[in-house]
Amino acid sequence: MPTIVITGASSGIGEALALRLAAPGTTLHLVARRRERLEALGERLRAKGATPGLHAADVRDPGAMERVAQAVLEAGPPPDLLVANAGIRGEGDGNGREAMEEILSTNVLGVLNAVLPFLPAMRAARKGQVAVVGSLAGYRGLPGGGAYCASKAALMAWTDSLRLSLAPDGIAMSLVNPGFVTTEMTRRNPYPMPFVMSAEKAADKILRGIEKKAPRIEFPGPMVMMVRLLSILPPSLSDRLLQLASREAH
Ligand SMILES: NC(=O)c1ccc[n+]([C@@H]2O[C@H](COP(=O)([O-])OP(=O)(O)OC[C@H]3O[C@@H](n4cnc5c(N)ncnc54)[C@H](OP(=O)(O)O)[C@@H]3O)[C@@H](O)[C@H]2O)c1
What we know:
By secondary structure, the chain is of the alpha/beta class. The chain has a single domain (3-224), classed as NAD(P)-binding Rossmann-like Domain (Rossmann fold). It contains 10 helices and 9 strands. The chain is globular, with a radius of gyration of 18 Å. Residues 7-14, 32-34, 37, 58-60, 85-88, 106, 110, 133, 135, 178, 180-181, 183-186 line the site of NADP nicotinamide-adenine-dinucleotide phosphate (NAP).
């Protein structure tokens, strides 16, 4: 009878994960700001025999996320799986102060707000799994997306460190780094998206990794190779390659 919490469940990858995980006996706590979207998803989960818990909350608000955790823990056992997936890419100048503040407050502090309030109960239960959704964009600063890339790079370091401190308590931690996925976030992308995949396919890959308790869940393979290579090349060379690619795209 698993209990699962998913932030950013009102669309895209979070919604696809919730639909894949819905089964009789499963309780799915869904967190996002758009209540009506959560209600519609809740109905679809109920039709699959799952029990939805709906939490209209903003991950940037630590008090609101404390209240979500309290409500989840009062309703049942600590989560078997907590997916901190809510995130934004931001609009406008992706390297400016405004983008940095907006994106870090959702993608980094929002993840902390979603995860930390559950840890004491999960630690006490000595079980459970946390999956944080980052991005392959965290491997290196990409043209025009400094704030987004910085937020996902921060998640790599934070989850690597937290994984070590959670392991002795029997809690597994995975970082999910997808490439391009067709969702509301990427619908209006003006540039080509190599190896793009559907949210459903991404959800399947994520769940396979979660089942294996993989520390990093990264896909698709060719994009993983590309970003890893870019991250180890000397910046003088990787800059030139990225400049070339971005000129080709425009
Ligand atoms: N799509 C891609 O190509 C791609 C690639 C790599 C990584 N990712 C990552 O995957 C995750 C999910 O993104 P997606 O592609 O599925 O995009 P999406 O369809 O736009 O979904 C984003 C989700 O996050 C929620 N959210 C955003 N800000 C929030 C806030 N302040 N409080 C609560 N919920 C908030 C949104 O719900 P509300 O608006 O209702 O609050 C929505 O449910 C993100 O972390 C993203 O960075 C996506």
